[in-house]
UniProtKB/TrEMBL annotation, chain A:
UniProt cross-references to InterPro entries, sorted A to Z: AAA+_ATPase (IPR003593), ABC_Ni/Peptide_Import (IPR050388), ABC_transporter-like_ATP-bd (IPR003439), ABC_transporter-like_CS (IPR017871), Oligopep_ABC_C (IPR013563), P-loop_NTPase (IPR027417)
Classification lineage: Bacteria, Bacillati, Bacillota, Bacilli, Bacillales
Any Gene Ontology biological process: peptide transport
Annotated source species: Pseudogracilibacillus auburnensis
Any single GO CC term annotated in Swiss-Prot or TrEMBL for this entry: plasma membrane
Annotated family: Belongs to the ABC transporter superfamily.
Name of the protein this chain belongs to: Peptide/nickel transport system ATP-binding protein/oligopeptide transport system ATP-binding protein
UniProt GO MF annotations: ATP binding; ATP hydrolysis activity
Cell inner membrane in keyword set: yes
Membrane topology listed for this record: Peripheral membrane protein
Keyword annotations from UniProtKB, A to Z: ATP-binding, Cell inner membrane, Cell membrane, Membrane, Nucleotide-binding, Translocase, Transport
Automatic annotation (TrEMBL), chain B:
Family statement drawn from the similarity comment of this UniProt entry: Belongs to the ABC transporter superfamily.
Biological process annotations from GO: peptide transport; transmembrane transport
Any single Pfam family the record assigns to this protein: oligo_HPY
Domain named ABC transporter: residues: 23-273
Name of the protein: Peptide/nickel transport system ATP-binding protein/oligopeptide transport system ATP-binding protein
Lineage: Bacteria, Bacillati, Bacillota, Bacilli, Bacillales
Keyword DNA damage on entry: no
PROSITE patterns xref list: ABC_TRANSPORTER_1 (PS00211), ABC_TRANSPORTER_2 (PS50893)
Keyword terms, alphabetized: ATP-binding, Nucleotide-binding, Transport
Species the sequence originates in: Pseudogracilibacillus auburnensis
GO molecular function, one term: ATP binding
Keyword ATP-binding attributed: yes
CDD domains, alphabetized: ABC_NikE_OppD_transporters
NCBIfam families reported for this sequence: oligo_HPY, PRK11308.1
Length: 330, 340
């Protein structure tokens, strides 16, 4: 295990072309994922969290989304400069991704066994029968009961939780070093979500892989993350170890999110809110993107954009002019 | 059996509260027939709501929680009779809603409104906000044109929107603002009971808390009674006075909110609570999670005996054979479990 990170995202900027203008979906985002680590990217709609993950996978929609600047280094190799063919080989082998709605990622006219087997055949060049056996084995590993029978069923015959397990089985066929999970449990019921999260933790240990977990759910973050990256309106506003984020948030947005959630003690009281609404992606505020909603905002925040700076250690970063005031509040 | 349940419940209400409830639901059932085959022979039915009884006092909030397919939305829709119940009784202010003719129903319905989950699908995209909020007033022929206009402006202010928004169309608003518009529309006829069907589930966290606060402020100001349907147990805990937990068309547990969250008696409630990830990494690592096996069974082929037995860690042969009665195990704490 070397000391260099598995994944390094450096100053990544991604633009989207829309009918109404250019959307700067991600702006100068930087973060690392170490080997064997789970990093959660948290954010609301329009935060750029999903676009960041699609950029890493090389799956930005052609002619619409484009990486404008920055580097994405996997094991030191810059993915931004790879050809489509090189990326195709990388996806599945080194990085895999699972999505929120497994039904849209599975092919409805092939059995799930065939779909997983195809991945084994493509990436490992093994025969049809051997691939199917491996597929059944991988279904067993993600906790699908009676995998010998399930392998011959079609996606519509499975429940949402089962489909997500199939997606995970498929993503893990080639022991990827990095699994990107984009809201993988958001469409699932809580009891099923609990099953899938537990399984992901076990598989992470078993495969010794890293997970980049995209979510809006702070409960899931607390459960899964080693480290947390908070995004707002395309910007990384804070980064820290998971305990730090929850106990000592330094960005007013992170604090606002934590306080806005109903909790044990909130019953009968008003919830704390973040005033205002999420910014229009076509007309983001100048200066700090969060200033129109921030209780700490000053003239400096309206004019100058804060950059993501280390606070104390390398593991603690925040993009705010007034984070020291938050330290006092908490 | 249903008669007995209803009887018990009426008794308990008298004990708890001298006043009669605003809403009383007795053994409500809603079955959706399944069509099969070329000649549409009946192929059984989906028992979406299968014998549900509860009461709600005026000014209170009853939270209804459960996972997808448990029948919670169907329940809400049957109560305000957007769908016709298969059987059972719904008493509103002591008046039997289930046997009203169209005219009377329309009159009573002014008292009952619904707020939907999807603020993008529940507003007519071709109407201006003033028309959307004013439509119930127009349909029910309330007041003059001028009075209606004043009422609409008053409602907009109450839900935190500007009067200048009235001439705009739904697509010009964010999700949270649209939900406010839906709330203004629901309030237009001065209802007493509002069914809130997942009203904040589609909203971002930072906006969700604004809408929850708004719902609570309006309840305080207008004395509203809420039936708050949600899969989000944290939100339900925050807003509800009492909570009913549903599983496969039945209520498995009903009690005051803190009783449910701190002394859950039904194994399903316990599992559901332990499955919510708590936003505290230290607590999350410490606590023991009950991970339920398997999926929710199909409501077409319900398990025998207790519906939960296929996933229940405590299930015995008794549970497989006999369905437990929904009964008051402790004062005000109703449970349907042989062992809970």
């Amino acid at each position: 295990m070397g000391s260099s990170p598995l994944l390094q995202v450096k100053e990544l900027s991604v633009h989207f072309r829309t009918d109404r203008g250019i959307v700067r979906a991600v702006e100068r985002a930087s973060f690392d994922v170490q080997r064997g680590e789970t990093v959660c990217i948290v954010g609301e709609s329009g935060s750029g969290k999903s676009v960041t993950s699609l950029s890493i996978m090389g799956l930005l929609p052609k002619g619409i989304g484009e990486i404008k600047e920055g580097e994405i280094l996997l094991n030191g190799e810059n993915l931004v400069q790879k050809t489509n063919k090189e990326m195709r080989r990388l996806r599945g082998n080194d990085i895999s991704m699972i999505f929120q709605e497994p039904m849209t990622s599975l092919n409805p006219v092939y059995t799930i066994g065939d779909q997983i087997a195809e991945s084994f055949r493509y990436h490992q060049g093994i025969g049809k029968r051997a691939a199917l056996e491996r597929a059944i084995e991988s279904l067993r590993r993600v906790g699908i009961p009676l995998p010998e029978e399930r392998a011959f069923q079609y996606p519509h015959q499975l429940s949402g939780g089962m489909r997500q397990r199939v997606m995970i089985a498929m993503a893990l066929t080639c022991n990827p070093e990095l699994l990107i999970a984009d809201e993988p449990t958001t469409a699932l019921d809580v009891t099923i979500q609990a099953q899938v999260l537990e399984m992901m933790k076990e598989l992470k240990e078993a495969f010794n892989m890293s997970i980049l977990f995209i979510t809006h759910d702070l409960g899931v973050v607390a459960d899964m993350a080693d480290r947390v990256v908070v995004m707002y309106a395309g910007i990384v506003v804070e980064e820290a170890r998971v305990e730090e984020i929850f106990q000592r948030p330094l960005h007013p947005y992170t604090l606002g999110l934590l306080e806005a959630m109903p909790s044990l003690n909130s019953r009968g009281k008003r919830l704390r809110t973040i005033q205002g609404t999420l910014p229009n992606p076509l007309q983001k505020p100048n200066g700090c993107r969060f200033h129109p909603r921030c209780p700490f905002a000053t003239d400096k925040c309206r004019l100058e954009e804060p950059s993501l700076e280390n606070v104390g250690s390398d593991e603690r970063k925040v993009a705010c002019w007034h984070y020291d005031q938050l330290e006092e509040v908490i | 059996m249903p008669v007995q349940i209803a009887g018990q419940q009426e008794q308990s209400i008298r004990l708890l509260d001298a006043e009669s409830p605003l809403l009383e639901v007795n053994d409500l059932k809603k079955y959706f027939p399944l069509k099969s085959g070329l000649f549409s022979r009946s192929g059984g039915s989906v028992k979406a709501v299968d014998g549900i009884s509860f009461t709600v006092q005026a000014g209170q909030t009853l939270g209804i929680v459960g996972e997808s397919g448990c029948g919670k939305s169907t329940l809400g829709r049957n109560i305000i009779r957007l769908q016709e119940p298969t059987s059972g009784r719904i008493l509103y202010n002591g008046q039997d809603m289930t046997h009203l003719n169209e005219g009377r129903l329309r009159h009573v319905r002014r008292d009952m409104q619904i707020i939907f989950q999807d603020p993008y699908a529940s507003l007519n995209a071709k109407l201006r906000i003033s028309e959307i909020v004013g439509e119930p007033l127009r349909v029910h022929k309330v007041g003059s044109r001028l009075e209606r206009q004043e009422k609409i402006e008053y409602l907009m202010e109450k839900v935190g929107l500007e009067a200048e928004h009235l001439s705009r169309f739904p697509h010009e608003f964010s999700g949270g603002q649209r939900q406010r518009i839906g709330i203004a529309r629901a309030l237009s006829l001065n209802p007493k009971l509002i069914v809130c069907d997942e009203p904040v589930s589609a909203l971002d966290v930072s906006v969700q808390s604004q809408v929850i606060n708004l719902l609570q402020d309006l309840q305080d100001e207008f004395g509203l009674t809420y039936l708050f349907i949600s899969h989000d147990l944290s939100v339900v805990r925050h807003i509800s006075d009492r909570v009913a937990v549903m599983y496969l068309g039945k209520i498995v547990e009903l009690a005051e909110t803190e009783k449910i969250y701190q002394e859950a008696a039904h194994p399903y409630t316990q599992a559901l609570l332990s499955a919510i990830p708590v936003p505290d990494p230290v607590e999350q690592k410490r606590r023991q999670r009950i991970v339920l096996k398997g999926d929710v069974p199909s409501p077409v082929h319900l398990p025998s005996g207790c519906r939960f037995h296929t996933r229940c860690p405590l299930a015995t042969d008794h549970c497989r054979e006999e369905e437990p009665v929904f009964e008051e195990k402790m004062e005000g704490h109703w449970v349907a479990c042989h062992y809970g």
